[in-house]
Design the sequence.
């Protein structure tokens, strides 16, 4: 499964990059395949693995912010591995045709 999620601390002002970095650090240290862009962090693995990492990433932000907003989207597709790369490669292949 692939989960794309964003964690936003609320009540800490406009500059939230430091807080978001705490969440991304948890994801990167998990060892699961992941990718971060301007809006979301995507992580790939089994349901329990991925949700544990998301929970810990949220907790890292929650430890420093009075309120946290989470947006999460999941692609649950059993048997697919390396979806973070293969889905993008498919689109790129079509674009280059």
Sequence:
């Amino acid at each position: 499964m692939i989960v794309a999620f964003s964690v936003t601390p609320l009540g800490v002002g406009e500059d939230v990059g430091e807080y978001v970095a705490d969440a991304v650090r948890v994801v990167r240290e998990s060892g699961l395949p992941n990718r971060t862009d301007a809006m979301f962090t995507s992580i790939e693995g089994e349901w329990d693995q991925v949700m544990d990492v998301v929970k810990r990433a949220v907790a890292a932000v929650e430890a420093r912010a009075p309120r946290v907003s989470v947006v999460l989207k999941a692609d649950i597709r059993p048997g697919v591995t390396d979806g973070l790369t293969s889905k993008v490669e498919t689109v790129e292949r079509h674009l280059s045709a």
